[in-house]
Amino acid sequence: MRFFLRRFMFYVITFWAAVTINFLIPRLLPGDPVSALIAKNQGRISPDATEALRALFGLDQDVSLWQQYLDYWGLILHGELGISFTYFPTPVTEVIQQALPWTIGLVGIATIISFTIGTLIGTGIGWRRGTWADSLLPISTFFSSVPYFWLALIAISLFSVTLGWFPASGSYDRSLIPTWSWEFVGSVIYYGFLPAMTIVISSIAGWILGMRNMMVTVSSEDYVTVAQAKGLSERAVMFGYAARNAVLPQVSSFALSLGFIVGGTLVMEIVFSYQGIGYFLFTAVAAKDYPLMQGIFLVITLAVLFANIVADFVYGVLDPRTRQEG
């Protein structure tokens, strides 16, 4: 119990620090978001409205930075994240709610697929090290070393332009109305297959290599030798003893990956014009949209912290030694 209480307090302090940094970083960026908004909406917003917009967005120069910080905490505690400058007058929460399901659906499924396949392949290669299976490592490492945007552009050139199998951009057929119909779901899968495939190809090598190295390490441990001496089947020893201990570092890495799923894959969403959270973050940074940047960073922070909490609990269940006092 003390282990979990200490971890909980650690994450509370981490959350406070992350929110504070999240508040300060956008305000340290050069530029004026109100001026950028007026310039973007020339003819629709008068320059005389500058002071009113500053007051509306909480950027009034008469308000101290400390008061802005307290107001920001008040908004967070009430579940409000302000109004987006870029998509004015849409609240930040609505913008994030629109983009988040697309990112979680695409990047989340692709990450789970790459983790599962990579871990299983790494388990087999590590258990049978020195065989022909080791020749798969250079191939997978080659694809992971290719810059992601190049891999995405090559996929678009080959499968979209040359072969015409998949669309080059978008998240679904715009002629369809978003509903829970088979036609719309099929369109989402069809449009998302190419970006998901590039995510899997670029990330699977890390899971394979990490699991393979850990399997090689634990295969020489005493408990594996004892399990083999008991006459257990090779499958039982590989998965029940070796893989169960070798997967522990993978669990921590996977938890971090799940946390960063919320942040999306920025380059992928830009290259494929995919309406995920990464694309909106890029737009917010370009427009110096403080509320939207802070809202997205806050969601990413909460996701990463929650994923780490889950990883700590799972790690404690899989390996009770982590709960013991030093």
UniProtKB/TrEMBL annotation:
Membrane topology designation: Multi-pass membrane protein
Annotated compartments: Cell membrane; Membrane
GO CC entries: plasma membrane
Ranges that cross the membrane: 7-25, 99-127, 148-168, 188-209, 254-275, 295-318
One GO BP annotation of this record: transmembrane transport
Pfam family, one: BPD_transp_1
Protein name from the UniProt record: Peptide/nickel transport system permease protein
Native organism: Agromyces ramosus
